[in-house]
Write a structure and sequence with these properties.
233 residues; Trp Operon Repressor, Chain A; 2 domains; elongated; binds S-adenosyl-L-homocysteine
Amino acid sequence: MTTAPWHATILTLYPEMFPGPLGISLSGDALGRGTWALEARDIRAHGLGRHRAVDDTPAGGGAGMVLRCDVLAAAIDAAAPPEDPRPRLLMSPRGRPLTQSRVRALAEGPGVVIVCGRFEGVDERVIAGRGLEEVSIGDYVLSGGEIAALVVLDACVRLLPGVMGKVASGVEESFEGGRLEYPHYTRPRDWEGVPIPDVLTGGNHGAIARWRQAQAERITAERRPDLMRTKQD
Ligand code: SAH
């Protein structure tokens, strides 16, 4: 049986930025195998007039330019008809911060449509008009949504079945279960006078699991007490 690949459609003024770094390593191999599909569409193809204008000055005045709602809506309609079941994200510093649980939900679905903003952002009317969900990758401002979209895709693609070598590595990681991950070590056993903790080389798997759990709790409490308070599921 073949299943449809997880399908990402990106709307951008810079389609040449895709797949970019996602064409390399695990995500690139998976793209080559057809585990996921990527289509980067140029918003400018729907631009107006001889110059294919996509932006205009902000109503009410002020600095910068705003992506036009009519141009963006035409680009979205051409890429994803209303019956397309995929969530439609708009990368935006005003959006709900991306979390691992949102990433997991996206990865379990059919794919995603992502609109990348530029300039000062997009005309507000297209957000509700085309059912866009604003998503932020953090409390800082990027110059465009493309790198944010690559972040979303990278986080999703590594969770697709068969992309990561070892399935377990997706389950024990930071944020899964509301904890940051425990520390890792590998050879050499002693490095610059610092040994690998004895418990990890002692072969007692129960003791190792308890030590890792305790370390994860300690690191989370120290660095991200907010995660400790969130619901465990
Ligand atoms: N004037 C806007 C910032 C525009 S930055 C404001 O103050 O909110 C230009 C584009 O970059 C945005 O439209 C968005 O698509 C993208 N972008 C910037 N920062 C982002 C972030 N933290 N997360 C996701 N997308 C971001």
